[in-house]
Specification:
The structure is a single chain. It contains 13 helices and 6 strands. By secondary structure, the chain is an alpha/beta fold. It has one domain (56-145, 182-392): Rossmann fold (3-Layer(aba) Sandwich). The chain is globular, with a radius of gyration of 23 Å. The N and C termini lie far apart (80 Å).
């Protein structure tokens, strides 16, 4: 009798913790995507792909969260769709996620946002990006199902019985009422951004020029690795007849001008040239197929040169950006309108926003980009605080 009481008293708290986890879904267990910070939070997308077998994917970084899964330009057969991009994801992580998706269920259509720091590849990934949880090896061989299960079971166990339940609950409740950026959480509807980003963080995003984003030596050393991964992605997409859509992410012009003025710019140009060479080689090899193209939404245009306003109140928020690297939902709609050649009666894409790049026009393109950078820098104050002051006074001209 005492033994049963002892075990009942021991088991009851554990079951309560597990039940609370399951009810609040703090780890995504009910979605089939257990996400554990420091263990596998960056791998929850891989579980989601296995669970939902999507026909449409968005790849990239957190900058691409506003890309709508419900945009009418998507092909009908690309449903269901998910965001397979993660915050701060590296190019390698995106490539491996794409390989995983193809191994599980080849998607029909993919939109792949290429962030400018993808040009240099950090082979080191976060500790919670455990590749053993993927269903395919880097060389393309499919991993056995039993191996994946061995990694999934401990994840579910940790998700249900971890001791940090109260921290999870607090974070869960806070996130429901306060979002830093608009994002679509897989199949959930879009939720609007409610929390105003602190001004210091907002300002730093425009002048972000540290080694994690732009290390010229790494750009040059890892260029071949990055292009090899891009080549393998193109080849895999072609092999499975996937409608692949690549685009250069439209970071704000002020942030982009920093890239042009430092040692990373030559390597970045080389990276774009290398990707175009790969795409044109693929087009020559498959003349009967729809060619893959590289869209460019970066640089200096009526969207990226938006006057900078501080996000310190609802009245002074920018229209096209949340900060220097994250564009808005409206901008994301323009991107898909252009890529999918969709014409909405509710909006017109600016004529200067979005163009297809080709090797033939690349030299003129870079020359024009350098010219526009000089004009932009000359027309704007050196200090971002001064530019904001001009914007608030209505003196900022685009």
């Amino acid at each position: 009798m005492h033994t049963r009481i002892f075990f009942a008293g021991f088991a009851l708290p554990i079951l309560c913790i597990a039940s609370l986890h399951a009810v609040l879904d703090t780890r995504g267990v009910l979605r089939g995507t257990p996400s554990i910070q420091g263990v596998n939070s960056r791998m929850s997308t891989a579980y989601s792909i296995l669970h939902s077998k999507p026909n449409g994917l968005v790849l990239g970084t957190s900058a691409d969260f506003p890309i709508s899964l419900a945009h009418p330009g998507w092909r009908a057969e690309s449903a269901p769709r998910i965001h397979a991009n993660t915050s701060g994801a590296r190019f390698y992580e995106n490539v491996r996620t794409f390989q995983h998706s193809v191994a599980i269920h080849p998607p029909k259509q993919v939109v792949f946002g290429l962030f400018f720091n993808f040009a240099h590849v950090q082979l080191r990934t976060d500790t919670d990006f455990a590749e053993a949880r993927l269903r395919v090896y880097p060389d393309g061989r499919k991993a056995p199902f039993s191996l994946w299960v061995l990694h999934l079971l401990p994840d579910i166990h940790y998700a249900l019985f971890s001791g940090d339940i109260y921290e999870d609950v607090f974070q869960n409740v806070r996130k429901r009422h306060s979002l830093s950026f608009i994002r679509e959480n897989r199949n959930k509807p879009m939720r609007k951004r409610k929390r105003i980003e602190p001004l210091p963080e907002f300002l730093k995003s425009f002048d972000h020029n540290d080694d994690t984003l732009c290390d010229g030596e790494n750009f040059l050393q890892k260029q071949d690795v990055s292009l090899a991964q891009f080549r393998s992605t193109v080849a895999l997409a072609r092999e499975h007849n996937i409608d692949m859509n690549f685009f250069l992410t439209p970071i704000h012009a002020r942030t982009f001008s920093l890239l042009q003025k430092n040692e990373c710019w030559p390597a970045y140009r080389s990276w774009i040239r290398g990707m175009l060479s790969i795409l044109e080689e693929d087009a020559r090899t498959h003349p009967q197929e729809k060619p893959y193209v590289l869209w460019d939404f970066s640089g200096y245009n009526s969207i990226t040169t938006e006057c900078i306003l501080p996000h310190n109140d609802n009245a002074s928020q920018m229209r096209w950006y949340y900060n220097g690297a994250h564009f808005s939902v409206q901008t994301a709609d323009f991107i898909l309108d252009r890529i999918f050649d969709y014409h909405s009666p509710k909006r017109d894409v600016p004529n200067d926003f979005g163009m297809q790049l080709s090797m033939e026009m690349l030299d003129d393109y870079f020359s024009e980009m350098d010219k526009k950078m000089k004009e932009y820098v000359r027309s704007r104050p050196e200090s971002i605080e001064q530019e904001i002051e001009l914007s608030l006074n209505g003196d900022c001209s685009q």
